[in-house]
Amino acid sequence: MTRRTFLLHTLALTLPRPILATPKESGLPLLPPTGQAPLDGTTLAPFMHTGTHDPRTGMYGNTRKDNAGNPRFHEGIDIAPLHTHPQTHLPLDLIHTIAPGAIAYINRHTHEPSLYGNYIILLHTDPAFGTYYSLYAHLRTIHPHLQPGQTLPIHTPLGHMGNIPAIPPTRAHLHLEIGIILSTHYHRIDPEHGGTWNGANLYGLDPTRIYASLDPRGRFHIAPHLQSQPPAFTLTLHLQTLPDYFRRHPTLWHSHPFTPGPAAITFTSQGIPQRGHSIPAAPPDPTVHSCDLPQLRKGRPYIQQTRPGRHTLTPRGHTLLQNLLVDETTPLPSATPPPTEIA
Fold first, then answer.
1. Could you give the count of Cα atoms lying within 13 Å of 25 in the half-sphere of its Cβ?
2. How many other CB atoms are there within 10 angstroms of residue 185's CB atom?
């Protein structure tokens, strides 16, 4: 062994060995919130109808109609009770957390003008994606010890299934949502009615598809699930800063590092941004670059056809874009908009 080889060998022995970080496991375990199962849409038995006796009206999507006969979007699923009181018909089912998470918001005031009634929102963190929410609405009771900020393990009791005044006890149910928070700055649009936790800032995914997508160990992986959704439309626009949404979900922004300028953002039919990236050029105003009409019909009316081959944002589409782009520099409103009612 030469002196050079000996010194290099000695140096290698004295240097600290690198500690290899164990990759964080993606996905979170997911359970049903009540004893009703399965919730993957293979059977209609778990779902509560809207008075039509058709349980499909308790499922996600354009499953309902308004008074004019137009489709009305349902952001989650309505889970029927398994057990009811023989005299009052009130449900006896306990509601549990579907995944480990932290309490973000609790509303214990059923008199507020929201069709959620008593409800709880939890935040769940997937290391490969970031946070998403689950929402449990129409609760008859909420355990008094629960407070925002608490971290709860999976299957923690939250309260009892119930109803709101607009729903008779015979149709009491749990309204469950699982989805995306569009902006953490939504309070600058509506600072009074729940702020970030207003229903207008919460964009739900289809819970039946989520439960159908669980891996063999019962874990939900939101990043590939969101990317598997068929794209509905793409907007081109000019960005001065990266929207808060993409800062919280960096894997969805495909141009690194971010540079101000023209960009394209693709959305699902539910209005959830799937991906964004920089582009060489774009018209000065937000423009519908492409859209899939069959997919658009599965969600809310964000896009309208003004003439053959020409599509523009609807008022709801402009609101979606406003909610996505709001940040800490957005001026507070001079007049508070009415609260959003979502059943």
1. 7
2. 19
Max CA distance (Å), the chain: 93
How does pLDDT run across 73-128, given as a tens digit for each residue?
Answer: 999 999 999 999 988 888 999 999 999 999 999 999 766 557 899 999 999 999 99
DSSP-derived secondary structure for 1-70: --HHHHHHHHHHHHSPPPPPPPPPPP-EE---SSS----SSS-STTBPPSSSS-GGGGSSEEEEE-TTS-
Lowest mean pLDDT among 2-11, 16-25, 166-175, 206-215: 2-11
pLDDT in tens, 135-179: 999 999 999 999 999 999 999 999 999 998 888 889 999 999 999
Overall residue count recorded for the chain in this entry: 343
- Give whole-number Cα distances, 276 to 158, 185, 221, 292, 317, in Å: 37, 19, 20, 17, 17
Reading phi first (left if > 0) and then psi (alpha if -120 to 50, else beta), residue 159 is in left
Q: Is the pLDDT of residue 65 over 90?
A: no
**Number of other CB atoms surrounding residue 20 within 10 Å:** 6
Token pair for 80: 């029927």
Helices (H) and strands (E) in the chain, counts: 6, 20
Cα separation of 90 and 163, whole Å? Answer: 9
CA dist 334 and 138 (Å) reads: 32
Short-list 291, 278, 182, CA closest to 237: 278
CA distance 74 to 173: 14
Count of CB atoms situated within 10 Å of the CB of 55:
18
DSSP for 285-338 reads S-EEEEE-HHHHTTS---EEEEETTEEEE-HHHHHHHHHHH--TTSPPPSSPPP
> Cα(171)–Cα(168) distance, rounded to whole angstroms?
6
Question: Is the alpha carbon torsion for 54, 58, 63, 69 positive or negative?
Answer: positive
The answer to whether residues 26 and 127 touch, using CB atoms and an 8 Å cutoff, is yes
